[in-house]
Input
Amino acid sequence: MTATRACLVALVVALTFLFMEGRATAARMSAGNLVQRRREVRSLLRRLNKPPVASIQSPDGDIIDCVHIIEQPAFDHLLLKNHTIQMYPSYNPKGMQHHSNITPHLITQIWHQNGKCPEHTIPIRRTKEEHVLRASSVRRFGTKMPRSIPLVNPINDTNTPNILRGHQYATASARYDKCHGSKGTFNMWKPAIARANDFSLTQLWITAGSYNGNNLNTIEVGWQVFPNLYGDSNTRLFIYWTRDAYQTTGCYNLLCSGFIQTSNQITIGGSISPTSTYGGTQYDIDILVWKDRAGGNWWLQVGGYNVGYWPSYIFSDLAHSASAIMWGGEIFSPDAGQTSTHMGSGHFPNEGFGKASHIKNIQVVNSSNCLNPPSDVGLITERNNCYNVQTGNYGDWGTYIYYGGPGNNPNCP
Output
């Protein structure tokens, strides 16, 4: 009996020792992983945050670094080491002017209130450690998950698949043999975000290639509210690109090398103000992306400013031309259940001007460098009781869409 009791005591002591040793080992591993992660973060920050000529503290909490144009992150790209900067596009698309009887209200970026960057520099939003630590991994910071774009199928096609769980779209699209860009006037809003990891955006997509061959090329521009990336709920200008269906290439804004910025006026990733109010003042911004006929680079113009370009040779299929264009809204919510994150204004298209979000004067740049209305426009949405899209053509609005919705509601459980 005494021997049995002694054996049990010894067993308990041994198990306790093993348990405590296991916890200590786990703690050491966890501490080691944290140290390694912070080391990776600091290495990334050194690559992204180039030495500034000057810095501006924005009222929204951002720090805008004015970096010499030749020191920007784009030139870390192996293909751009000996690149000569093209400061201006060789040609603008023909037919850019449009007239509207609705007076436009100008928007600005919030950092402009506290200064401007000098000539020969570009404004870059400084990346902070807390921005990176919110990402699932340092490697995935500033990138989309693979298959983050809808297929170009019409709204009534029952075979339209759910491309990626958590993504919902309300977009218009058009296919082309050869397309060289697109332009639109985008209504600006500040949609409510229901969950910490959700985002809401409005954008245009210029695409070529396909998912099937992992050679989908995209150029994407618009505005978004994305707390997990930016740390706040401000409406922000963004860009994105990929050449391999979001597998390993591309990123948001200037968070990797690729896009070459030339403007000292616009911060990509910077907050935009003011935004529209329901039933009140409406604010719009013109966005144009087109392929320069001389150099082949894909230029970006925002609010009349030539911001910069994607060199054609960072792409495969888009090095030549685009085959599809899309315009509209996207919601991402990785958590289970229908989110109540708003798309656009958070109201359905049938409410119309001043209440539903819109994109108007939608045009496409053809292979002759002329802007024309899109043809054979299809609509893409999966749950139109959550988010919906309508298209039309009217007077000085040209081709337009109303889109958006509130997400979760009695008809969208």
In short: The chain has three helices and 21 strands.
